[in-house]
Write a structure and sequence with these properties.
With about 240 residues, this protein is α+β, with helices and mostly antiparallel strands. About 40% of the residues lie in helices and about 25% in strands.
């Protein structure tokens, strides 16, 4: 596996100002609502809900917001009708991207995303034409910025925790697992007192590609514009960081 090219939601929210933080909380609430709707309001028996709540807590989303989102998902409170979407596209330099989101109007969101892609020299791709370049993986992020533990020791702990693969980007370690083993590996790491920044199910590029610096800057502008859209949750790319 070549590496991770997905800007983690948790890190973005931690670094965001109040306005962006409010928007991010709104996006996370949608994830919680859908998870509760699909599997019930008990995180003990609904792993997707547990994962969504964990992510919300990691960015200090207020407890009341979390509980309200769960109740909307279970129908105890009125909530808008939401559905998930996955769009495949190409960005500048012919890099492949997967755009995941949650919306109350799929046609409107599709139109908005098409407009953003056109504005930044990207284009929508047919279903299946991009996704085969990626694999579904569990991803655990460990921030070792303070270097409280050596990289070699952290790698060894990850391997012993039954990680499938690992990848460093600066001082952040991405630990990959099979989707069904994400919770087990996470628990193994926590038992070793490893502080986890985030855990999620992601689309990981099988191979990443290099492009010119100018095109890379254009891609970054596109990703930022997509991220500003209320319905977009995550953007995955095979662009080499």
């Amino acid at each position: 596996m070549s590496g991770h090219s997905h800007a983690k939601t948790v890190k973005r929210v931690k670094e965001a100002g109040d306005k962006k933080r409010g928007k991010a909380f709104s996006k996370m609430a949608r994830v919680i609502i859908l998870a509760a709707k699909e599997g019930g309001g008990d995180p003990g028996s609904n792993y997707k809900l547990k994962m969504a709540i964990d992510q919300a807590r990691q960015v200090n989303m207020p407890k009341d917001n979390i509980e309200r989102a769960i109740k909307k998902g279970t129908g105890e409170l009125f909530g808008e009708k939401l559905e998930q979407f996955v769009f495949e596209a190409y960005s500048p330099g012919k890099t492949a991207i997967i755009i995941e989101g949650i919306t109350d109007n799929k046609n409107r969101s599709l139109s908005e995303i098409k407009q953003i892609l056109n504005q930044y020299n990207g284009k929508l791709a047919g279903a299946g034409s991009v996704k085969w370049l990626f694999e579904r993986k569990g991803t655990i992020t460990v921030d070792n910025e303070q270097e409280t533990i050596s990289k070699e020791e952290l790698e060894l702990i990850a391997i012993e925790a039954e990680a499938e693969d690992i990848y460093w980007h600066n001082n952040t370690l991405y630990i990959y697992t099979k989707p069904e083993e994400l919770e087990k590996v996470k628990r193994n790491l926590e038992e070793k007192s490893i502080k986890i920044e985030s855990s999620s199910l992601d689309w990981i590029a099988k191979e990443t590609i290099e492009i010119e610096e100018k095109e890379k800057e254009s891609c970054q502008k596109l990703f930022e514009a997509l991220d500003e859209n209320d319905a977009v949750q995550d953007i995955y790319s095979n662009l080499k960081l």
